[in-house]
Amino acid sequence: MSTELTRSPEPPPPPDETGVDPNVVFTPPIDIFETEAGLVLLADLPGVTSETLELQVQDNKLTLFGRVKSPVPPGARVIHQEYGVGHFLRSFILSDEVDHERITAKLTNGVLEVFLPRAPKSQPRRIQVAIE
Length: 132
Hints:
This protein is mostly beta strands and 132 residues long. Helices cover 0% and strands 38% of the residues. The chain has a five-stranded mixed sheet with strand order 1-2-7-6-5, with no helix packed on it.
């Protein structure tokens, strides 16, 4: 289940272009496991497509933002709704052990899988000292 992050106490603003209240943002549930090659992150993002998913790494921070489209067609009136609709946002601070240049991701049936490969360990080397 998702956890609702924010909900405005004021009357909701008009829905954005997706038909969703932009003030409703959920924290998607995440599973992370470790392999010999690195970490694998799985995030449940129902309703998010590859076109509406933004995944970026900046300053050691991995951020995912998924937009969803309201399942209610324009002009329809909601009679009963138990499934909350909102966008998804989650961020992680990456360690120096992750090779940021080789991170890959795929989205399958609403599940995002991000592979965070281990950075190669630096090898010991001899440093030449210049003589002045």
